[in-house]
Automatic annotation (TrEMBL):
<dbReference type="InterPro" id="IPR008279">
    <property type="entry name" value="PEP-util_enz_mobile_dom"/>
</dbReference>
<feature type="domain" description="Pyruvate phosphate dikinase AMP/ATP-binding">
    <location>
        <begin position="199"/>
        <end position="248"/>
    </location>
</feature>
<dbReference type="InterPro" id="IPR002192">
    <property type="entry name" value="PPDK_AMP/ATP-bd"/>
</dbReference>
<dbReference type="InterPro" id="IPR051549">
    <property type="entry name" value="PEP_Utilizing_Enz"/>
</dbReference>
<feature type="domain" description="Pyruvate phosphate dikinase AMP/ATP-binding">
    <location>
        <begin position="55"/>
        <end position="186"/>
    </location>
</feature>
<dbReference type="InterPro" id="IPR036637">
    <property type="entry name" value="Phosphohistidine_dom_sf"/>
</dbReference>
<feature type="domain" description="PEP-utilising enzyme mobile">
    <location>
        <begin position="589"/>
        <end position="659"/>
    </location>
</feature>
<dbReference type="GO" id="GO:0005524">
    <property type="term" value="F:ATP binding"/>
</dbReference>
<dbReference type="Pfam" id="PF00391">
    <property type="entry name" value="PEP-utilizers"/>
</dbReference>
<protein>
    <submittedName>
        <fullName>Pyruvate, water dikinase</fullName>
    </submittedName>
</protein>
<keyword id="KW-0418">Kinase</keyword>
<keyword id="KW-0670">Pyruvate</keyword>
<dbReference type="InterPro" id="IPR013815">
    <property type="entry name" value="ATP_grasp_subdomain_1"/>
</dbReference>
<dbReference type="GO" id="GO:0016301">
    <property type="term" value="F:kinase activity"/>
</dbReference>
<dbReference type="Pfam" id="PF01326">
    <property type="entry name" value="PPDK_N"/>
</dbReference>
<keyword id="KW-0808">Transferase</keyword>
Length: 666
């Protein structure tokens, strides 16, 4: 069946690859001619039948009776799909000349589905398969074009990788080529040079951008395109399939990240916890930033300050972290930022003398709030809701002073921390045989070791050892005051958590909730309404916890995080983040981070059991990188010297978004 025929666009007859090319050809895209041995014909061949006369005739016409080399490729119904590309899992044979070589090439492609199934948990070896045949293109250069950033999902970025000759060496991982990031018009925004790369002209980049736009229009979404320029300088579309990365839109707003808030909220939160604890933090940050003068009111009002994605909390790093970039010329001429910094320095200088006394007053006030809470079982439902509401202003005050005092802390100065004190207390109490509940009741400092969570009791770490004694500290030391304020934050969170849990138990006992823990999925207003009105219907909406957020990201127009790249030694190829022991060589154990020199396609069967993959060479556009990303395996490529740097057995963390690979110490 020739690609020009209308029925060639039917996926069930010709497979995904061939049907896409047939569709593209009928829509006027610059494809290469060819024909398809259909799914039914392949089944006949697989059963032992010879190649039929129609195949022979099509071969003669396309190959000029054997004088023109061909490419014989798979076109399965289960590859090149939106949720799974199956990139490189089936065979292709390049440079096929002569009828006998053609018959052998077809046999190799047909047999490859059985070979692929041997190393797969999902393939059976009986997947419908067609064979696509096209002339071998004498390419000046070729590569891969992504209609969106395949790692971050940014829809305002196109990614092009280009190599000399055709794209085969690039997609196999043999070389990484030159990598271009473009805006939608084809203007270059970033470029990195690699092995086997080729320089593309501005006209070629603009033409590729137009091809990305056109394929997205034809196929209804951003495409992963293999392309080449032939010996006459004409752009050719060799393959088009949906990008398997999640589209995340265009990045907007400030740079966000978990940053300093990770210690406060190390675990994902549920709706009621967000209402109880994140809202006061947001208000406190606003007050602290305005009081210190480190940000103007317009910037603070325009900022989310604190945001929650999939239960994970992030803050505006543009406001909370010092900026390192070089100011523009206009910024240098504008006196307002310098005046603002001078005013902020003056305010912080005044705060330095006043804050210790203010902080101690806040500590006393917070302790008064905490000690004023009666035994929770003795309170009515309405009184428990009142506890939740009354804790908010106390949390705002303590949080705000914690931020302000933190501006005065010398991070290099040694001091006793709340965590070290908690470890010492917990270790000694357990050695003394004191029950866990009694430890928390008599030594609440141990709550510094437990993440805030609405539950019957905090989850303390199982195995701890008492650290060495901490250095003595001055009562007015900013660091010690900050630790004291952070402990009060944690205690206020625990009081509200216990009050909410008590309400959850009562609502479950009354049949209004299935389980006490379902109270976490409520909003505070709904919980209060249910206490006021026994007929109020409760519908918990728990949040499905997501993977940890990138260290630095901006929100896309779809509301999803788009990592801010640029500080890693390698290039992130997606797949999230993971940790595990380093393994070199073949047959890695489950949970290992495989560190290799090159992205060898033979590694595909072991990908699902890996915790991460790091390669010294290769491209984010290589087949193996695509497969790993689809399997949820974090991948970093282009990490020079990775094999020598990370020893066998060392535990490393791989971040497929930023490209960072860091050794973890126990």
């Amino acid at each position: 069946m020739r690609l020009e025929e209308e029925t060639a666009a039917q996926h069930e007859l010709t497979g995904a690859k061939a049907s896409a090319l047939a569709t593209a050809r009928r829509q006027g895209l610059p494809t290469v001619p060819g024909f398809v041995i259909t799914v039914d014909e392949v089944e006949r061949i697989a059963a032992g039948g010879p190649l039929g006369e129609p195949v022979l005739q099509a071969w003669r016409e396309l190959s000029d009776d054997g004088r023109r080399a061909l490419v014989v490729r798979s076109s399965s119904t289960v590859e090149d799909l939106g949720d799974s590309s199956m990139a490189g899992r089936f065979e292709s044979v390049v440079g096929v000349t002569g009828w006998d070589a053609f018959r052998r090439a077809v046999a190799v492609v047909v047999a490859s589905r059985h070979d692929a199934a041997a190393g797969s948990d999902t393939l059976t070896g009986h997947e419908p398969l067609a064979v696509l045949v096209q002339p071998l293109l004498d390419a000046r250069c070729g590569g891969v074009l992504f209609g969106i950033d395949p790692v971050s999902g940014r829809e305002d970025r196109l990614v092009v990788a280009a190599v000399e000759g055709g794209p085969d060496r690039l997609v196999s991982g043999e070389v990484d080529g030159d990598r271009y990031e473009l805006d939608p018009t084809g203007e270059r925004t970033e470029i990195s040079r690699g092995d086997g790369g080729v320089r593309l002209s501005r006209a070629q980049l603009r033409e590729l951008a137009r091809l990305a736009k056109r394929t997205a229009e034809v196929f209804g979404g951003p495409q992963d395109v293999e392309w080449a320029y032939d010996d006459a300088g004409r752009l050719r579309l060799l393959q088009s399939r949906p990008v398997t990365a999640e589209p995340r839109g265009r990045p907007t707003g400030p740079v966000l990240g978990p940053g300093p808030i990770t210690e406060t909220f190390p675990e994902p939160l549920q709706p009621l916890e967000i209402d109880l604890w994140v809202a006061p933090l947001r208000e406190a940050l606003r007050e602290a930033l305005l009081l210190a003068g480190t940000a103007d009111g317009a910037s603070v009002d325009a900022s989310p300050l604190v945001t929650v994605l999939g239960g994970r909390v992030a803050v505006d790093l543009d406001l909370l972290e010092p900026r390192q970039e070089t100011p523009r010329v206009l910024d240098r001429l504008d006196p307002r930022p310098r005046v603002r910094r001078l005013r902020a320095s003056w305010r912080v200088g005044r705060l330095r003398s006043a804050l210790p006394a203010l902080a101690r007053d806040v500590l006393v006030s917070a302790d008064g709030v905490l000690s004023g809470v009666p035994e929770l079982p003795e309170l009515t439902d309405r009184q428990l809701v009142a506890v939740l509401h009354r804790a908010r202003p106390a949390l705002v005050s303590v949080h705000a002073h914690e931020v302000l005092v933190g501006m005065l802390v010398d991070p290099a100065a040694p001091r006793l921390t709340g965590v070290s004190a908690a470890l010492r207390v917990l270790a000694r109490a357990r050695q003394a045989g004191i029950p866990e509940a009694e430890i928390v009741a008599t030594n609440p400092v141990v709550l510094a070791l437990a993440a805030p969570r609405i539950a019957c009791c905090p989850q303390l770490p199982p195995d701890v050892a008492a650290p060495a004694g901490g250095p003595p500290g001055d009562a007015d030391d900013a660091g010690l005051l900050r630790e004291a304020l952070r402990l009060r934050v944690r205690w206020l969170q625990e009081v509200t958590a216990r009050a909410a849990w008590t309400l959850g138990e009562r609502l479950a006992a009354a049949g209004r909730l299935s389980r006490p823990e379902d109270v976490r999925g409520l909003r505070l207003d709904d919980l209060a309404a249910a206490v006021r009105d026994v007929g109020y219907e409760l519908r918990p909406e728990p949040v499905e916890p997501e993977d940890p957020l990138p260290a630095r990201f901006r929100l896309g127009s779809t509301g999803r995080p788009i990592p801010v790249i640029g500080t890693a030694a390698g290039t992130g190829a997606g797949g999230g983040a993971g940790s595990g022991p380093v393994h070199h060589g073949a047959d890695p154990p489950a949970g290992a981070v495989l560190v290799v020199r090159t992205l060898d396609p033979s590694l595909a069967p072991v990908l699902p059991r890996l915790a991460g993959l790091v390669a010294e060479t290769g491209s984010v556009l290589a087949h193996l990188a695509i497969l790993a990303r689809e399997s949820g395996v974090p991948v970093v490529v282009g990490f020079s010297g990775a094999v020598d740097r990370f020893a066998e057995g060392a535990t490393v963390r791989v971040d497929g978004a930023s490209g960072a690979v860091e050794e973890e110490t126990s």
